[in-house]
Amino acid sequence: MKRIHSNLKNLIDQKGISIRQAARDIDYRFDSVRQMYNDEMKMYPRELLEKLCAYFDVGIADLLRYEDEQEG
């Protein structure tokens, strides 16, 4: 089964910053950014997606990916 996964962990890790720093930089709730970083988010707020795309200078396809669900 396919589902949408967050790629935020890769983007934050590549930038070499903390989740808290990213949340502060985009002026968004830490807990929401942490959930997306850990790929635990069920719904993606449009405002968060817009802020993250602008912050990392990426498109939505770089922030989210549609792929097979990982067996766990």
UniProtKB/TrEMBL annotation:
Positions of the HTH cro/C1-type domain: 7-69
Domain of life: Bacteria
Stretch forming the signal peptide: none
Sections of the chain in a coiled coil: none
InterPro entries: Cro/C1-type_HTH, Lambda_DNA-bd_dom_sf
CDD domains assigned to the protein according to its UniProt record, in alphabetical order: HTH_XRE
One protein family per Pfam: HTH_26
Protein known as: Helix-turn-helix domain-containing protein
Lineage: Bacteria, Bacillati, Bacillota, Bacilli, Bacillales
